[in-house]
Amino acid sequence: MDKIEPPLIKKSLGSLHPISQTKDFLLKLLSEIGFKEIHGPEIESEKFNFDMLNIKKSHPARQMHDTFYVENKSSVLRTHTSPVQIRGMLNTKPPLAFTSAGKVYRKDDDATHLPMFHQVEGIYVDENVTFANLKDLIHQILHNLFGKDIEIRFRPSYFPFTEPSAEVDILSDNGKWLEILGCGIVHPKVLKNCNIDAKKYSGLAFGLGVERIAMLKYGVNDIRDFYKSNLDFLGQFK
Amino acid sequence: MKFIYQDLLNFLSEEPSIEVLSDKLFQLGHEHEIDDNVFLMEFTPNRGDCLSLSGLARDLNIFFGKEEPFKVFEGDIDPLNLNFKNLSTQACPKISFLEIEIEKIPNTYEPFLENHFSMSSNKKTNFFTDVSNYISYELGQPTHCFDADTISNELVFENRICDESFKSLLGHNINLSGKNSIFSLDNKIISLAGVMGGMSTACTTKTKKVLVECAFFEPEAIIGKSVKYNLTSDAAHKFERGVDIEAQEKVLRRFIQIVKDHTEIKSIKIQTFEDIQSQKVRIPVDVEGIKRILGIDLEEREYLTYLSKLGFTIEKEIIVPSHRHDVMSQNDLAEEIARIIGYNNIESNFLEIKKMADECLDNSNRLKNYLIKNGFSEVINFPFTENKKEKSISIDNPLDSNRSHLRTCLKDSLLDNLLYNERRQKDSIKLFEISDIYSNDNKINYEKKLGIVISGRRGHNYLDFSKKLDNDYLSELLNYHSDIPDFNIEEIHRSELKTKKKDRIFYVEILIDQLPDHIFEDSEPHFDQINFIKYQPVSEFPSSTRDFSFSIEDFNKYDALIEYLTDLSDKNLKDAFIFDFYKNQKLNEIKVGIRLIFQSSLTTLSDEEIQKSVNKLLKPIMDLGGVSIPGLD
Questions:
Q1: Do residues B286 and B330 make contact, with C-beta atoms less than 8 angstroms apart?
Q2: What is the DSSP letter of A4?
Q3: B-chain residues within 8 Å CB-CB of A161?
Q4: Is B251 in the A-facing interface, judged by CB distances under 8 Å?
Q5: How large is the ipTM?
Q6: Dist. CA B434–CA B437, nearest whole Å
Q7: What is the pTM assigned to this prediction?
Q8: How far is B96 from chain A, CA to nearest CA, in Å?
Q9: Is residue A107 part of a domain?
């Protein structure tokens, strides 16, 4: 009997939230490509959230039905992490390569949209940065995420802060194209707003929705599951 | 927005298949789905010029040629002497009015008009309004039809601050507030300009004399109004995106032609008010600039041909057509060229970025690693709350009154998470959240905080099962790193919460930024490589627990028993763990207790189903021999 050892205790690990895991995965990947992560506040001025990004006063995104305004319209809950990049560009001379990641807010709440979600965005400014370079970078990112064989489609799109702008789709297993990210060549007005000589420098920018990537990678069908804090759900991502 | 495939073909010189047309529309940036020969288009907000058959055909011209398969009235038109005043020429720099009187209201429509209403989901209203709606589909210019007999006095357009009610042509009372672009008669609002007309001046099935208004409204004057007043409006959709300021005469002549195709016209009169001359945008010819932006080779001739086919005029400079409000610069032209070439046909060019910084774990990541290794799960919560605290940030336009402020601490969210999991029969809960917390202390401040909540059993193993998560546990966990500044562990009393559970709840909140940099240096990242596992949907059905205590008389069977117990498997078994281990020296006996937790993703399990699973799981143990379950026959 004395030789009997008690059963081994397997230390029970907790879990990092799947959104944190996906965000960290993207940031690590981008860091390996050469991007440096920078941080900024979630409550922003309209100047940094909109004006500096060439988003006109009349743009629908600035309406009360799309953006959360706080403290008597003195500020907004940032609608994207791009203002972090604006702050980064104002403080750094090119060449520069930044990522910004975190919570963003839009006035949506239904089965497929949440009032808070996460973005990972990146910007690279240097001499002679082209749309062809942007395509290469997007391929690097998506091949890392979904494998070398993934089919990728670029479509023209519209973002006030990039021109040309593109949305990128991947071909899913069921033969349907899925929108995966937005990107483009940084609009010269945005560079000028950040005191960067737009005749000498050009830039590329992209943004990924972390929830969307997490849903695809983990096979989660309902975006709301991420925020129920159900231990049966969270425990699967150990 | 819907476009019928056959209608679009009528505007093209060639006859591409629906698949080929679909591919080219995607290449040009016009996202859509196809439903039974109808394109369901999702246009980007900067391409208002494509919200019509002729607009789409203009964009497709380079691939399939374009046609104008309709006639416009080419005869003389008498001048109209309308009593009209434009008080806001910035909001409406150009507006035209057409007055038509007809002999008889047509009983039937020509096939093209009849088909439009039968193929689309649009309902017929009255003859003039139906013509107006069709023209908007065909040419992209919204027009509004007033019953001319109701426009008796001076018609006024203005952008004015409103605080009055207006009855829309759909019969709804709209309470206008703030600044709106409106038309008025005798100072009474008769139409919300660019969005929807009013009941008092609307055409009816008896209207024989119409006043057609055809305007260019600055998008800024219209934007947001249809959403604000909850009015679904094709006109607003188009005006918000910008219409062609030079198209008014053509549109009104087309209106006359369609009326003429249906009935005899008694009189037609037209008048245009152009208070501000529109300026053409001119961009220098710079093929080298385009090549620098896109990173491609491009001949100047090719570049100019593409632009010409898109409707740009090539002179010493490139003159942007009046319908393209989105083109202002060389970058815009680069996008035009890229669309024609096809984004997918532009070759990638290797990008190498000089690395700016090495990876390093910040304090919050180190903390996360440490807590996860100690069995904690990270949660992420929305920051919204109904609780207004002294320095809390208020949201001017919350989703609802329950989410009118930003939280000033993490406690309430984490307690909600704890109660949610207790309701799901969790008996050992260790949660944490790290988040920025905002407050207003004359200026907006934020601090990164860690919140931890614990309750229930310390763990699911025989050492921790009977111990409870408590103050000592939390102190030990955090004191392990003595560099953590002062922190207060708070016991949350169950009486404050709507819960009948008995386990004590402990909570602590710590400012991350006050942690010294070297803290948790030994906490290597737990997630070196993230494996994206395939998630299994969580069951919403209740779980059932069964405990069994094994008495081991033949110690030679001990190892086999433990090995079996640590690898149990059954379709209904959700979890299993050894919660008791006891050596009884006096009786020369070893006891091992195991807890089995059953749950199905499809149904609430019956006692019979659970027993069936139990029997299956226990049989190999009973077959071992030398192991018994006291009390079990």
A1: yes
A2: P
A3: none
A4: no
A5: 0.96
A6: 9
A7: 0.91
A8: 25
A9: yes
